[in-house]
Structures are given as C-alpha cells and as structure tokens.
TrEMBL record:
The keyword Ribonucleoprotein does not apply. This is DUF3159 domain-containing protein. The lineage of its organism: Bacteria, Bacillati, Actinomycetota, Actinomycetes, Micromonosporales. It comes from Dactylosporangium siamense. InterPro entries: UCP010219. Pfam families: DUF3159 (PF11361). The keyword Nuclease does not apply. Keywords: Membrane, Transmembrane, Transmembrane helix. The chain crosses the membrane at residues 38-56, 63-82, 102-124, 145-163, 169-193.
Amino acid sequence: MHNGDESLADLLGGRRAALDSVVPVVGFAGGWLAGGRSIALGAGIAVLAGAAVAAWRLRQRRAPAATVVSLLLVCLGAIVALHTGRAEDFFLVRLLTNAASALAWAGSILVRWPFLGLIVGTVLGQKARWRRDPPLLRAYQAASWVWVGQYLVRLLIFVPLWWAGQVTWLATAQAVLTWPLVAGCLTASWWVLRRALPPEHPGLRNPVPAPSDAGVSGP
C-alpha cells in the first residue's frame, strides 16, 4: 500500500466534526446549571451555540450537509427536553442516532456496501469503483466494524448515564470522550484497512478492478 496515502483523519476531517458536536452539549449543560437547572435556558444556549458553529462552518464551506444535520439534531434535542421536562432527554436524540448508526453500519457491511467505502469513495470521487476491487471491498468491510464498535461504546457509556438522569456526567462524557473516541476509531479503522490490503495494493486512491471487470466502465 502506498505510504503516501492520506490517513482517514486527513480524508474525513474527523477532529473538526467531533469538536463541533461538543460545543452545543457544553452550552446546554452550562446553561442548565447556571439557570438553576433551567431546561429552557440550557436549550436556548445549546441552539445558539449550534447555530454559531453551523454559521462558522458554512462560511468556511466545510461539509454543509453534515453541518445542517448537526444543527437539526441540536434543535430536536432541545425540543424533546422541553417537551418531556427532563434535562437528560436533550441527549436522547444522540442516543437514538448512535443506536441507529450502529445498526446501519452493520447492515451496510452485511450487504457488501460498507459505509466506510461509500464515504471515502465519495470523498475521493470514485463513485462505486472501489466495489470492483475485491481486496479493497473486503478491507472496507473489515474496517467498518471498527465504526460499529465506536457507536456501541458510546451507547454503553451514555445509556446508563441517561437512565440515571446524570445530565452533568452526560455532558462531561460527551465533551471528554468525543474527540478521543473518534480519533481512536479513525486510527484503528485506518490500521485495519492497511492490514487487510495486500502489500502490493496501490492504495485507496487506486482501486484495482477484478480481471472480469477490467473492461467494464464504472458508473
């Protein structure tokens, strides 16, 4: 595998996305505590913080779709907490999205359309050409299991805290663990990718079609 290939962290910009997701959570917990456990104040600060982060990222023209989705999740979390009157329910949407993500990533592996391949292939402008490279497809499948594990780890940590109504600990865990967990996932999945590919493989940017597909033009 070419040593000049970028790492997954380089390709996917995981650090920026992870840090951005922490800001509204810290804002919610800070407002909730400062307002004498006021869900309204915490929700308001979280939405304002999320909007500020989104405006900054959109101004930089970085991942506009992901930025908008992140802001919508913050707003939905605020609405749920205000509706139920339980501050810990601000985190409920995040718990559900993590559970759904774990199932979706596992499903993508089983149907041989691993999400990691789809994401990296899109970033590299390859469309689905990587799927006609059997070793690369298998490598993406193996590395995608690391991402399933990431979501399960989050659930193992956050669900008991949510169940116990530990708002401050939920915010703390999200702030402390988000970037290290994403960094660990990126590093581990990159290691799995490199180990799964044959030494002579030219790398992620250069899918090698199977002999029977060599003469078939890609989508």
